[in-house]
Amino acid sequence: MSNTNEIRVWDPLIRVFHWTLALAVLVALITEDDLLWAHTWAGYTVLGLVAARWVWGFIGSEHARFSDFVRPPHETLAYLGDVAAFRARRYLGHNPAGGAMVVAMLLLLPLVALSGMAVYGYLEFSGPLAGLFNASPDSWSSVLKEIHELLADLLLVLVGLHLAGVAIASLQHRENLVRSLWTGRKSKHE
Ligand code: HEM
User: Which residues line the pocket of ligand 1, CB cutoff 6 A?
Assistant: First the structure.
């Protein structure tokens, strides 16, 4: 049933993108050591989802567009100061700090997936990048693995900060942002 106090903020692509992405990252995380086929497919899924999201950031619905939520650094810092002082204003789309985090994750996620494809190509001679590493020196193996693990660890730090940001904004504005990203709707109140 539709609620007249609510408006549609997140389109279906954003909602499907987000929850499939979170699931794919979770699958990649829990299969990293034992289920290489699931780990690699989770990585390809992440890459496809993020590619679609980059395009949608330019042609998607109002709040899906980068122009709606990417703000200059001074505005983002001022917003964080307002959060610390409990006087941050409410945004219907992403707030400036959330927007910066979205861009950071959309840049880091493909790097994690691509570095994983490089490891897979080098160690298993499999995947789309296998051909690139035929003549690579042995020492690359540990370097590529280290890079992939470092980037994945950095992603986990960003996800942790992302979840903290969602929790803080939800508490400060007394709204359930997780529910909004599921239903696509937010309350109209200021
Ligand atoms: C690996 C896990 C996750 C990743 C990589 C991730 C990434 C993202 C990205 C890229 C967005 C921007 C959505 C868009 O504009 O397309 C976003 C938004 C959001 N995410 Fe996540 N997310 C993850 C897990 C979660 C989880 C577990 C929750 C909740 C429990 C969550 C809650 C949210 C919410 C509420 C928003 C919208 C924030 C707002 O209202 O501005 N995320 N996330």
Answer: 14, 17-18, 21-22, 25, 53, 94, 98, 102, 105-106, 159, 162-163, 166, 177-178, 181
24-29 long-range contacts (CB < 8 A, ≥24 apart) are: 24/49, 25/109, 25/155, 25/159, 29/152, 29/156
Residue 184 dihedral angles phi and psi, to the nearest 5°? 90, 0
pLDDT by residue for the chain (190 residues), tens digit each? 557 789 999 999 999 999 999 999 999 999 988 899 999 999 999 999 999 999 999 999 999 999 999 999 999 999 999 999 999 999 999 999 999 999 999 999 999 999 999 999 888 888 888 888 766 777 777 899 999 999 999 999 999 999 999 999 999 999 999 999 999 999 987 6
Domain boundaries, the chain: 6-187
> What's the whole-model pTM score?
0.95
**Up-side HSE of residue 140: CA atoms within 13 Å toward CB?**
14
Å from CA of 172 to ligand 1 middle: 18
Structure-token match 């890079």, residue found: 147
CATH class of the domain at 6-187: mainly alpha
